[in-house]
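Following the same procedure, sequence and fold were stored together, as reproduced here:

>
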Amino acid sequence: MADLARVLIQDGTLTLPQAERAAKAARGGDVASAALELKLADEGALVRGMARAHECPGIDLSRSAIPVAWLDAAGGAQFCREHRVVPVAVGRAELALAMGNPDDLAAADEVRFLTGKKILRYAAVGTAVVRALDGIERARAAGAPAWRGERAPALPDRAAGHAAIVKAGDPVASVALPEAEESMEIVGLADVMEPFEPPAPARQAAPPAAPRRPAAAPGAGAPEPHQTLRLEGLAIGKVALVADDDADVRQLVATVLAKMGCVVLQASDGKAALEMVRDAAPDLVVLDAMMPAMHGFEVCRAIKGDRALRTTRVVLCSAVYRGTVGTDAQLAFGADAFIEKPFRLDELTRVFKVALVGPAAAETTEERAAREEGMALWRQAADALTENRAERAVELARQAAAKDPWSAEAHYYLGHALVKLGQLFEAVAAYERAAELRPDVDASYQCLAQAYEKLGFQKSAREAWTRALETCKDPAKKKTIQARLLQLLGAS
């Protein structure tokens, strides 16, 4: 928090003696909370300094109102207290969190996993977060629909929420870039797949005998309790190995694979994983990219470089490496697929389904029909946008995304329509999803970056522009993106 103290002095929020006093009283280096408790500065001014230090907008909770029901949407009171977070906006596809430490990515990822929503992180004074949580629980006990900060505006609806957003400064002027109406026709993997028809029960052969359970690798310890064989599911009798140094992640992935019918083995580091692959010859290996003893990238290269093992399907996962790294990993290390963390369960299932059974299993006849309906709908949404019928475009794009959740185009055009209606929070979630589905296309990243800029998320905007630059194949457009990045860097 030393950086925050300097920012608060530079802003004139605190004098040097006041900053030294707050730093001395701060618990865990939380200067902003100490300054608020000592009444050295107004909460809004402290939040403005935090917004500058963390490069994201902030929330003045004293001027905000939070519906009681929103607390459960962010993991409940206990989780919020442990991480000093409080929800300040809950939308269809996004959730805004006021965070005492907006750099706590682990907490944001956990809320994203619990809710399935895009998480927008806002800076807030930690003490103010705790006070808000106390107030929400008092409001719940009294039967009130919402908690209101002491300076929150009067709202016609007592159950409505209100977030008092504080920005570090005025947004930087934008560089001219392609308009949102730019088309994004993408041919997905499903377009080259044959429909998968499961065999009728009467013609099914008897279940194959369970494979020999491989012995644990030397030094790997006893098998974990959930190494399970289930004689059901499309991957019946196949062996999968999950390697990750995070036990919770291993449990999650193992559960998904077990439900698909796999024998699931586990390893907590790369070296043990490679030994187990050589001993057990699994059908599928799921590797975290960064592990102790030996990185997942190295394990993947060793598997694909071994003549006896190279047909083993390998899925790499990472919370650090993102975007085009997936394509690079497949080319450089031979991985069959790459998934970014935090996981989406539907995406995990789909990737494992293709890896274990083959591309034909990724789409049934019904799914193909739904995808074709979705394609017709997002094309209608694109037409509605060109006719300036944004509300109709939102309706059509939502229908398209419901029909085919894997359509990058549906989410992309939904983002465009939401921007036109001024619904930037939901637009960010839509563009993020389009970029997740097609990380090799720069258009989603460009629109995402512009939406982040309008919201004041400068750090997130820079990250999106960087990913757009990495994926862009047009030299002229790359120069424009580079110029934008330089402007943002100069403004930080």
Observations:
- Residues 365-386 form the longest helix (22 residues).
- The radius of gyration is 25 Å.
